[in-house]
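User: My collaborator sent over this chain with a note saying "see what the structure looks like." That's all I know about it. Can you take a look?
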Amino acid sequence: MPVEIGGAPAPLDVAAAWKDGRKVLTVAVVNPTKSAVTFPLAIKAANPAGRAKLYLITGKDEMACNVPGKEPGVTLVEKAGVPSAAP
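Assistant: Without extra context I'll predict from the sequence alone. Here is the result:
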């Protein structure tokens, strides 16, 4: 179920959706720049419980890709908790 997003700072692209009967909230944030961007995340009309996970997908530049047989150019790192700033 899509979630209404408000106040996302430019140039970030932010989307969110509930799943599993509003038991899990997924928030996606895309930063199309080379600069770290931080912003406050406020979740209204919900009481978050449990553990958060961060999946950080990154590469050295916007043209990064993975090619079979070569060192990965794009990596996925899973971290427990929510960072206070970009890693």
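A starting point for your reply to your collaborator: Residues 27 and 38 are 14 Å apart (CA to CA).
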